[in-house]
Amino acid sequence: MIDFRLDHDDDVVFDNDDIAETSGIDEIMQAVTILLKTRMGEFFADEKMGLDTEYVLGKAYNEAYATGAITDAIQKDSRVTAVNDILLTVVENRNLVATVEFMADDQISSMEVMILA
User: Fold this and answer.
1) pLDDT tens digits for 1-25?
2) Which of 18, 27, 95, 101 lies at a CB distance of 3.0 to 4.6 Å from 22, suitable for a disulfide?
3) What is the CATH number of the domain that holds 48?
4) Residue 85 lies in domain
């Protein structure tokens, strides 16, 4: 699959006045990042897309439930065949950093995503 490449601020990247593209494992990692940064129900065209944040953010934070919700969100991408590891770190203002390792396209990928409160 090919998609527009996004930068760390989720803005479209341009390359010589053309929209830059991403594919392969980089595109899968970008898609997983988008899934984790989107609250379930937020995207009107697919209300089941995204992360169920009930126990992920705020006062109801529960690490075990948050790990399960993050695993569920990542597995919504059918190209992800396994979620191997998730490490959660609560940072300032009750934000959450998720370090995730998953298998896709016969490769193990690891990435860090800031989930904002």
Assistant:
1) 889 999 988 889 999 999 999 999 9
2) 27
3) 3.10.450.40
4) 2-115
